[in-house]
């Protein structure tokens, strides 16, 4: 579904993504974990052309999408749900969903499906998005992204800024997306939460992939434990 070979990207002369290779198979949930500043957001931006790659190749499906401008990402069936959700705060839940399906002729059907999947959004469909709780906002960001029926969903730190119990709910919701047949690449600092629901994972450190494997193996890996456990989530997940 997604194949990335030796991708490089950065800002000016500074390389932030330093030759990264990985893949996500159709139907998989893959977690890319890394600390603050590792380059997670930059990597996702490079995948959809928001940060033009300096080298390497990206394929989405059978298509080489390396040089595609960002507004064409939608034509590859890819949706990026950005860090911090970036909802239209002064618009209602429903209007956010309508904008999410702007390009989709089946929009009304998809919105109805999302309201079924996220009953709390249905109850709050007229509420302004900016007044939702953090967890509800993340659900709306997911639902808004799904209304366009993507085949590849890129999630930038869906758990960011949420209380531990809500984090768990958001991760369970993401795992539940499997039944929609959507393929998920999720970047996260919350390694445990992300790896618990992912099939496979990669560790990104200062722009390079240093470890990869099945989620269970990474969770048991002493290096991952040393670097990412004990960040306050442990008690929730263990
Ligand atoms: N627009 C920019 N201009 C210059 N440098 C940038 C820009 N955006 C990010 N960087 C730098 O690139 C590096 C990687 O940043 P990035 O936001 O990709 O990391 P991240 O892994 O998403 O971090 P976080 O977990 O804090 O979101 C950082 O050193 C950051 O300062
Ligand atoms: Mg980031």
Q: Can you count the helices?
A: 10
Q: What is the domain tally?
A: 2
| N-to-C CA distance | 32 Å
- Estimate the mean pLDDT confidence: 90
What order do the helices and strands follow? EEEHEEEHHHHEHEHEEHHH
Query: Can you list the ligands bound to this structure?
Result: adenosine-5'-triphosphate, magnesium ion
Class of secondary structure makeup: alpha/beta
Name of the CATH superfamily of the largest domain: P-loop containing nucleotide triphosphate hydrolases
CATH architecture name of the largest domain: 3-Layer(aba) Sandwich
Let me know the number of strands. 10
CATH fold group of the largest domain:
Rossmann fold
Strand order of the largest sheet: 6-7-8-3-9-10
Tell me the Rg in angstroms: 17 Å
Biggest beta sheet summary: 6 strands, mixed
Low-confidence stretches: 232-238
What fraction of residues sit in β-strands?
25-35%
What's the CATH class label of the largest domain?
A: Alpha Beta
Shape category? globular
Summarize the amount of helix as a percent range: 25-40%
What does it look like?
This protein is α/β, with parallel strands linked by helices. The protein folds into 2 domains: 138 residues, P-loop containing nucleotide triphosphate hydrolases (Rossmann fold, 3-Layer(aba) Sandwich); 71 residues, no CATH class. 34% of the residues lie in helices and 26% in strands. The protein has 10 helices and 10 strands. The strands form 2 sheets. A 6-stranded mixed beta sheet has the order 6-7-8-3-9-10, sandwiched between helices. Strands 2-1-4-5 form a 4-stranded antiparallel beta sheet, with helices on one face. Helix 2 runs parallel beside helix 5. The two termini are 32 Å apart. Bound molecules: adenosine-5'-triphosphate and magnesium ion.
């Amino acid at each position: 579904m997604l194949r990335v070979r030796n991708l490089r990207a950065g800002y000016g002369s500074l390389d932030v993504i330093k030759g990264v290779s990985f893949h996500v198979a159709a139907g998989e949930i893959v977690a890319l974990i890394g600390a603050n500043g590792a380059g997670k957001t930059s990597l996702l931006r490079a995948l959809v052309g928001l940060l033009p790659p300096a080298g390497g190749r990206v394929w989405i499906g059978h298509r080489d999408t390396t040089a595609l401008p960002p507004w064409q990402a939608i034509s590859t069936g890819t949706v990026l749900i950005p860090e911090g959700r970036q909802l239209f705060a002064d618009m209602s839940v429903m209007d956010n969903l309508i904008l999410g399906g702007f390009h989709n002729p089946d929009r009304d059907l998809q919105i109805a499906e999302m309201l079924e999947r996220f009953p709390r959004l249905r109850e709050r469909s007229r509420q302004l998005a900016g007044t939702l709780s953090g967890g509800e906002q993340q659900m709306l960001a997911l639902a808004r992204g799904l209304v366009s029926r993507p085949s590849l969903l890129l999630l930038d730190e869906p758990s960011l800024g949420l209380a531990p119990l809500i984090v768990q709910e958001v991760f369970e919701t993401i795992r539940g997306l499997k039944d929609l047949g959507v393929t998920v690449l999720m970047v996260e600092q919350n390694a445990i939460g992300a790896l618990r629901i992912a099939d496979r994972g990669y560790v990104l450190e200062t722009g390079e992939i240093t470890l990869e494997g099945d989620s269970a193996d990474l969770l048991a890996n002493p290096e991952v434990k040393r670097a990412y456990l004990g960040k306050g989530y442990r008690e929730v997940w263990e």
